[in-house]
Amino acid sequence: MKKIILSALSFAILTSAAMVPAGSALAQWRDGPPPRWEDRGPPPPRWDRDRDRHHRRHHDNTGKVIAGGLAAGIVGGLIGGALANSGPRYVEPPPPPPRCWFEDQQVRNAYDGGWHMESIRVCR
């Protein structure tokens, strides 16, 4: 029972972590009407190659985030599996040995069509 509960809990944690969005994206304006063409402000600043390279180097880390999430999921799965398998186990006892004895039975003789007595081993 403990193994089932821990497995269900680890599954719920991993699936909920996969369902969480990375960021919020809103398609509507929350703080007033959308800006109009006449309301645009000053032009954007000139492109600075060094500033852009620095920004990309330090802020484009989506690969690191994905790799960290995968590593955390694998480590969590290993820990959850170890916890689920750490309890005592029920081992079925071996079956009792069969009881066997010998009985005398009449058996048909294949050579001359007659009958003869043989000792046959019977196990139950």
SSE topology:
Layout: H1 2-19, H2 49-59, H3 62-84, E1 100-108, E2 115-123
Antiparallel strand pairs: 1-2
Helix pairs in contact: 1-3
Describe this structure in words.
The chain is α+β, with helices and mostly antiparallel strands. Helix content is 42%, strand content 15%. The chain is built from 3 helices and 2 strands; from the N terminus they run αααββ. The model has no long low-confidence stretch (mean pLDDT 79).
Summarize this entry quickly.
This protein is an alpha+beta fold. Helix content is 42%, strand content 15%.
Helix count, per DSSP? Answer: 3
Largest sheet: 2 strands, antiparallel
Number of β-strand runs:
2
- Unreliable segments of 5+ consecutive residues: none
What gap, in angstroms, lies between the N and C termini? Answer: 36 Å
User: What portion of residues is helical?
Assistant: 40-55%
Overall average residue pLDDT? 79
* C-alpha-based Rg, rounded: 39 Å
Structural class from helices and strands?
Answer: alpha+beta
Key terms:
alpha+beta; two-stranded antiparallel sheet; 124 residues; 3 helices
